[in-house]
Amino acid sequence: MRKHWKILTASFLLATAVSITVLTVTGHPGRSKYPAEEFPNSESEEYISINGFLSNDLSSTSQAEALDAYIGKFMKRWELKGGSLAVMKDGQLIYSKGYGWADEEAGIPMSPGHIMRIASLSKLVTATAVMQLCERKVLNLDDRVFGEGGILNCEQFSDIRDKRAKNITVGQLLRHQAGFTMHKGDPMFTTREIMIWEDLDTVPDMDRIIEYALGERLGYTPGQGFRYSNLGYLILTKIIEVCSGMDYEEYCQENILHPAGCYDMHLAHNLYEERYPNEVRYYETHDATPVPAFDNSGDTLWRRYGGSNIEGLRGAGAWVASPSEFVRFVASIDGDPVIPDVLSQESIRIMTSSSDHTRPIGWARAGEDTDWSRTGTLAGTSALVKKQKNGYIWMFVTNTSSWKGSRFTREIESMYRNASARVSSWPARDLYTEYRKEI
Q: Could you tell me if residue 42 is left (phi over 0), alpha (psi between -120 and 50 degrees) or otherwise beta?
């Protein structure tokens, strides 16, 4: 009998009873509390993740032998230790399989139930949380973030060097149009340098990084340019906490992920010893070298384990998930009624709208008549999820870096296109339904 990973969730409390510390925000009365009628209390419930049910045997079919062989060659060519693929069609999980090693040193093969860091695919979760709070009339995309009347109007964030920052809106953060650039490096990956520059004794947390960023000049006027910004999604993480009165991770799990049927998604930790029970080991390229630790301790560590502050990414890139659960999350924000959406049709339309001057929200690419895609890259991780016009949603993620960096996701896309073309016919089944019958 297969062993299920069981994840117990605490009672869903109204924000007035949640005992976490939030900023005292002025200009937006009541924003640190939910409207009671919008957030009904629910009883404690035991959730069982599909990750505890899935195995490679379930997707070992003759129809997909050529696909598996092609992926195997792809992984060998790019020196990938492990990878995982999930394919959904019309709301049904038709294929889910792991390749290579989840942890080679421990002798653990990759299975579809293993979870991995998904890097910037995390931004889809954060964007969904913001859009949901907009639907619940807790905030608006046009709301200003800093300064008088702003969502984060408080003493800690009052020292703003560039006055243009007072005009940054929630929508501009979501679309990477808030004026932040990386002229001194990405603050999410330069914590050691920030500690030196700012003469800090401890690693800057989310609030301290935002405070540091406000002490720098913007690279352009908000709304009049585009620069990809992890910092912007860290600020959105803070906005979600302030506006909901809940911890970011808890809010997303209780209000988005669990309703979507995703019970084994969590925020990552930094070190191998801190991994989740079914989380993989991460690997870098064969020629990678250790770097100074992110905490300025003087240690020299691998980027994947202590060289970068993965935990500090929060809503910008810190989620871990299995492809099989993440494609179900995507199906809950795609407008297709087969799997109930956690957002309204209008919110989904706004998220996926784009033009020459407007980028989609959360997604890297999206549009009314195009495929939607989101990529993610970290030391030890490359991930791509894609919702195709033909009804397929698929995701492939590795536990190994590539020398191509963020461009490696193009290789993943090409690999899947060629591999899937070799499938004579996909299995006629739904692993989601089979898993529910099993339990």
A: beta
CB 84 within 8 A of CB 397: yes
Cβ neighbours of residue 337 closer than 8 Å, sequence gap 6 or more: none
Burial class (CB in 10 A: 0-12, 13-18, 19+), 180: buried
- What the block records as the tokens of 93 is 């999980």
Do 325 and 96 contact (CB within 8 A), yes or no? no
SS3 192: helix
CB 113 within 8 A of CB 54: yes
- Model confidence at 438: pLDDT above 90: no
Q: Please report, for residues 81, 83, 375, 376, the alpha-carbon distance to residue 384 in angstroms, rounded to integers and kept in the order given.
A: 17, 11, 5, 6
At position 394, the amino acid (one-letter code) is W
Low-confidence winner among 8-22, 82-96, 154-168, 170-184 (lowest mean pLDDT): 8-22
Q: Bigger pLDDT: 155 or 40? A: 155
Residue-wise pLDDT for 179-223, tens only, equals: 999 989 999 999 999 999 999 999 999 999 999 999 999 999 999
Q: Spell out the residues 6+ positions from residue 89 whose beta carbon is closer than 8 angstroms to its own.
A: 391, 392, 393, 426
Token readout for 150 is 């702003």
Residue 233, helix vs strand vs coil: helix
**Confidence at residue 439, expressed as pLDDT on a 0 to 100 scale:** 60
What whole-number distance in Å separates Cα of residue 166 and Cα of residue 417?
A: 45
Spatial distance between the Cα atoms of 326 and 121, rounded to a whole number of angstroms: 9
Closest CA to 294 of 275, 280, 312, 276: 312
Measured CA to CA in angstroms, residue 45 lies from 246, 254, 263, 436 at distances of 19, 11, 12, 16
Instruction: Give the tens place of pLDDT for each residue, 237-254.
Output: 999 999 999 999 999 999
Token digits of residue 376: 């993610």
Instruction: With CA atoms as reference, report the closest residue to 55 among 136, 113, 127, 140.
Output: 113
Please report how many Cα atoms fall inside a 13 Å half-sphere around the Cα of residue 79, on the Cβ side: 11
399: DSSP letter:
S
pLDDT at 14 over 80: no
Which residues have C-beta within 8 Å of that of residue 381, sequence separation ≥ 6?
Answer: 116, 117, 118, 119, 282, 304, 397, 398, 399, 401
> CA-to-CA distance for 47 and 5, rounded, in angstroms?
9
